[in-house]
């Protein structure tokens, strides 16, 4: 479950980034967003960010999952799926805890 979703303006406010910077994060897949709500606006999980921008370990994990054929929505779901065998109970919590190698290993397994 994703506790908090951010619109692009929310991301700008939270990180202090400009609109072109936030768009670049999305275009370059530092983070991924999904269209949600009645207006189908792009929203990004708040868990994808640290104080000043995207969680650094996230981009490579997104790349591995995307290369494995996962859609952006599937990537978001996989990162937030409960997994008690990981520190923090999910892949995204593990990335925040510094367990990037284990999360990426599991992401690679998803491609097979």
Automatic annotation (TrEMBL):
Domain Rv2175c C-terminal: 57-111
Source taxon at top rank: Bacteria
Protein name per its UniProtKB record: Putative transcriptional regulatory protein
Organism, as annotated: Serinicoccus hydrothermalis
